[in-house]
Automatic annotation (TrEMBL):
Family indicated by similarity: Belongs to the MscS (TC 1.A.23) family.
Membrane topology, from the record: Multi-pass membrane protein
Mechanosensitive ion channel MscS C-terminal domain ranges (all copies): 337-397
Keywords: Cell inner membrane, Cell membrane, Membrane, Stress response, Transmembrane, Transmembrane helix
Record's protein name: Mechanosensing system component YbdG
Subcellular location: Cell inner membrane
Amino acid sequence: MRDSILGVLESIGLADNTLVVKIVFLLCILTITVVYYFTAKTLVDRIFRRFLQKTKGSFLPILGQSKTLHYVYLTTVIMVFRALSELLLESQDDFLRLIMMVARVLILIFSALSIASFVDVLGRMARRNHKLDALPVQGFQQTFKLVIAVITIILIISVLMGQSPGIVISGFGAMTAVLMLVFQSPIMGFVAGIQLSANNMLRVGDWLEMPKYNADGDVVEIGLTTVKVQNFDKTVTTIPTSALISDSFKNWRGMQESGGRRIKRQVCIDINSIRFIDAEELQKMSGSRRLAQYLVAKSKEISEHNKELAAEGMARFLDQRHLTNIGTFRAYIVAYLKQHPRIHQHMTIMVRQMAATAEGVPLEVYCFTNTTAWGEYETIQSDIFDHIFAVAHVFGLRIFQAPSGYDWRCVAEATLKQAEEHVE
């Protein structure tokens, strides 16, 4: 081909002009390369579309959406350009050496981009496979791409310097401390990602709570150096991956997988409203479906105990046992929860009395809903406490509430009324 082109140039008297010869050869090389690019791209695209129509998998569609094939085209184009340059240009020409060097660098760059793009394709495939949710796919993906970038840079430097890659790597020995400082975060993030995966501590989709970084939401990405958390207010918090190993955090995945979410809230009872239940109240409460069994068993237990005391000559009121309104109220709440259709009956159900405080005697409701959906959970919890607040007065109990402006106004009006009556 070279001789044919030189023959044509010699016939028109341009063979002795070195610059014209180089320009002509370069135009020929570019023309053939462009024709090759469009021809190869058209053929491959047609074949790819045929396979795409026949296949039912998701790999080819994802590959088609990526830039992998585009970078492969460009890599082969540079290879063709390099081969034609060696064929047409003189081997001792400085222009050829420059072209060959640039071609090698471009081949390395586009090859690295092709591999990195293919890694992205594999990453997207892995994220669609829920069996791999426990693995930090994004972190592995970024680590592999970082390794590709480092290797590519070393090879490019060796091409520009005209030295072997081994010599270039040996030259980095003196820069070890600097390199360790530069790649400190990626190295620590990679190690942390492996630990998170090996110990199954965190995965994409988990509800993570980490007050130190104001993170409270769903994990959307576990990267090489950072973990992205979309908070429930739709803001995004980024946390260093290594911080998830060195610091503590709360993962709510256990709650989500258990199928139940805990309710743990207190109701403060006014101590002045606590008293024994009289016979009339006991008779009324015995008609309750929720309290009947408890009252029968408790009354029998108390009656037997009091008979034993009477036999011993200790029949005084203070020595005897009696039902209290707060104890009966507590038993009523337990029965109410055990019959509630939205409370998980295979998990802990408990109503316990806490130590008295300045706000009264706290009764803590401790149970689990049979759903983990946030909206449903809040609705169930609200319904339960609505009922508790509303039914407390039936037991003669008052829910504690700090005096408000309305309360003080009522007191002032009552005091003023008494004063007026006294004056009259």
